[in-house]
UniProtKB/TrEMBL annotation:
UniProt-recorded name of the protein: Cupin domain-containing protein
Domain of life of the native organism: Bacteria
Record-annotated Cupin type-2 domain positions: 64-111
Pfam families named in the record: Cupin_2
InterPro entries found in the cross-reference section: Cupin_2 (IPR013096), RmlC-like_jellyroll (IPR014710), RmlC_Cupin_sf (IPR011051)
Sequence segments annotated as region (Disordered): 1-20
Alphabetized SUPFAM superfamilies for the sequence: RmlC-like cupins
Taxonomic path: Bacteria, Bacillati, Actinomycetota, Actinomycetes, Kitasatosporales
């Protein structure tokens, strides 16, 4: 990649909706640099219900490196380790987890590692 790049998640290259209208992923593709995405997870969203049918895996197999803008999400790893991420949190999540929105506020996360194939149909 050479030169200056300026892209906006407000004008994404691709939008991928989650099942049952429970949110969406907005993705910008960076030439030679992968993809960066902003996901909005609506209250009631759960990976095992709203993305698992798309991914067709038992748990989320994407590795995430993200920053939470708003809302809260609980992540539970396949081995039982868990955390809740919220506004201002930087989180690294290895493959093998479930996650769900906590509370009645949408959870908005920017991720620059795990969204390339996330919720791809």
């Amino acid at each position: 990649m050479s030169g200056l790049v300026n892209k906006s998640l407000d004008s994404p290259d691709e939008v991928r909706p989650f099942e049952e209208g429970k949110g969406q992923l907005e993705l910008v593709n960076i030439e030679g640099g992968g993809a960066v995405g902003r996901a909005t997870f609506q209250p009631g969203w759960r990976w095992s219900k709203h993305v698992k049918p798309i991914a067709q895996t038992e748990s989320c197999q994407a590795a995430h490196t993200g920053y939470t803008i708003s809302g809260h999400m609980k992540i539970v790893m396949d081995d039982g380790e868990e955390t809740v991420m919220g506004p201002g949190d930087f989180t690294i999540i290895p493959p093998g987890h479930d996650a769900w929105v906590v509370g009645d506020e949408p959870c908005v996360v920017v991720d620059w590692q795990g969204y390339v194939d996330y919720a791809r149909r």
